[in-house]
Design goal:
Length: about 190
């Protein structure tokens, strides 16, 4: 089941996106605050993809080497944390002029989708990394939390940053980010 969730992870958030786009009612204030938060999430993703490389878009769990540099020195899953921050930004964006109950529903749906999807994916990836990298991954996992950043970077820092891989691997997320932002902005001015 986890492998299926991993393969389709990019599409499994679609119902949540539809809820935010259809029932969300941004205000100028909620749009600006949400945009800043979502942008921070996307920046974290870009930083992570720059270190992890093209394997972040694969349909199966794979890693040619253990990355512990960049954001991976602070948190084991910076892309998933970035996704959550981005999703939370779009949640904030969509909650401008909706009722408290609608906000609570949006928040419950956000937490449900992220917990369900990443609750399946993260253990699958951890199992793979432990099998692939053994004690090196075990030491890393003991020192670096899955989603809560540490104060100082993990050592040794393994991996290098590449801007080139971002253009290939992050373009879809950037397009989705732009579309979501444009639609939310259009809901304010129309």
């Amino acid at each position: 089941m986890s492998a299926v969730v991993f393969r389709w992870r990019g599409f499994l958030f679609l119902p949540l996106v539809v809820v935010f786009l259809v029932w969300g009612r941004p205000s100028v204030r909620s749009f600006v605050i949400g945009f800043i938060v979502a942008l921070f999430g996307e920046a974290l993703r870009i930083w992570g993809v720059g270190y992890a490389g093209g394997t972040t878009r694969s349909s199966e769990v794979c890693a040619p080497y253990l990355v512990t540099a960049g954001p991976y020195g602070y948190v084991e899953n910076p892309l998933y944390l970035g996704n959550f921050i981005m999703g939370f930004g779009f949640f904030l964006m969509s909650c401008g002029v909706v009722s408290l109950w609608t906000r609570l529903l949006f928040l419950v749906l956000l937490l449900f989708f992220y917990s369900l999807i990443y609750g399946a994916i993260i253990p699958l990836e951890e199992s793979y990394l432990l099998t692939q990298f053994g004690d090196g991954y075990h030491r890393y996992a003991q020192a670096v939390h899955r989603l809560l950043p540490r104060k100082t970077p993990y050592h040794p820092a393994l991996g290098t940053f590449s801007w080139a891989v971002i253009g290939r691997s992050e373009v879809h997320t950037l397009i989705y980010f732009a579309l979501m932002t444009i639609i939310m902005y259009a809901k304010i001015i129309l």
